Amino acid sequence: MMYLDNAATSFIKPPSVYRAVQQAMLSASNPGRGTHQSARKAADIVYDCREAAADLFHIDDPSHVVFTFNATHALNLAIRTLVRPGMRVLISGFEHNAVTRPLNAMGADIRFAGRSLFDSDGVLSDFKKKINDAELVVCTHVSNVFGFELPLDGIASLCREHEVPLIVDASQSAGILDLNMNRLGAAFIAMPGHKALFGPQGTGLLLCGRIGKPLLFGGTGSDSLNQDMPESLPERLEAGTLNVPGIAGLKAGMDYVRDRGLENIHSYEKTLLQQLIDALSAIPELKLYCDSNHNQSGILSFTVNGVDSESFSEALSEKGIAVRGGLHCAPLAHRSAGTVDGGTVRISLSPFVTKEELEKSCRIIRAMF
């Protein structure tokens, strides 16, 4: 199988990730639930991973790194901390359901800014026009459908200037683009562990610029007489037993990202993306959604004349190519781009995709027409 669905999850991981998960399962029990050797081992794994995340994302205090089950869990924590019914929340036109559904559930007054695909200047200009009336901004860093890199630094600067809290969905950028918590000044940054950070599924991170409101209540291994959640991070937002084997794997994945280098990963994926665009643009039956200004990470969506996107993706699967068709849990992005009726076929890359297998995949796609 040629795996080209990395925006959903990075199926191929560094070998060190598999080893770390196995070693944790063989040696570590439950952090904070005892002083015996296996509990101490678990606590060390958890703390080492917090420190690695704090270093990678430029956070002064590792306790402000909170472990979650995934990015959706992290976004719900952030949104439920800051949003109240009727609050005016400004979001981009490319948000995932992990943002829009919690906002709707909280009764937010949702406003939209920046719905022009691959138009960074237009997106920033639209945010600038509308931020005066916003009480909160929630913005994805990279569109999970189109790979569009939104002008996050400019949006964050506007938020700081107008003293509007910012929540960042870094689901498609963490491990690929530079994310500096200190520079952005965000209230929260949410991300999965299982995508470009190469951790196992069931892992995620919430980077906290403020304390946060608990979503779950339960044991934390500390302050047990208190019938409220502890006041301090990370325990305030981490109820119950942590996924220690997953966290061990996440640490190994972040070590891989650090050692290979964000710039090298991004550059390699850009090279693959251009190879893909060059090969598929010669097929007249395909409409590619790509950016001539190169504000695009390693994701390419396309539509096929006369063929449903999910049917085409199934046909590729039968030929050994794993992609994703449909709306990708982001109908807002498809409405912004005009592809909501049929969705798109999405190819998403990673450092473990080779130029040779990408070339083979393109040959197979060309032969289908």
- Per DSSP, the total helix count is 12
How much of the sequence lies in strands comes to 5-15%
According to CATH, what is the class of the largest domain?
A: Alpha Beta
Termini separation comes to 21 Å
The topology string of helices and strands comes to: EHHEHEHEHEHEHEEHHEEHEEHEH
Helix content: 25-40%
Overall pLDDT level: 96
Q: What features would you highlight for this structure?
A:
12 helices; 2 domains; 369 residues; seven-stranded mixed sheet; globular; Aspartate Aminotransferase, domain 2; alpha/beta; four-stranded antiparallel sheet; Aspartate Aminotransferase, domain 1
Structure description:
The protein is an alpha/beta fold and 369 residues long. The chain has two domains: 2-11 and 262-367, Alpha-Beta Complex (Aspartate Aminotransferase, domain 1); 15-260, Type I PLP-dependent aspartate aminotransferase-like (Major domain) (Aspartate Aminotransferase, domain 2, 3-Layer(aba) Sandwich), CATH 3.40.640. It is 40% helix and 15% strand. The strands form three sheets. It has a seven-stranded mixed sheet, sandwiched between helices. A four-stranded antiparallel sheet has the order 9-10-13-12, with helices on one face. Strand 6, helix 7 (181-184) and strand 7 (188-192) form a beta-alpha-beta unit. The chain starts with a strand and ends with a helix. 50% of the residues are buried.
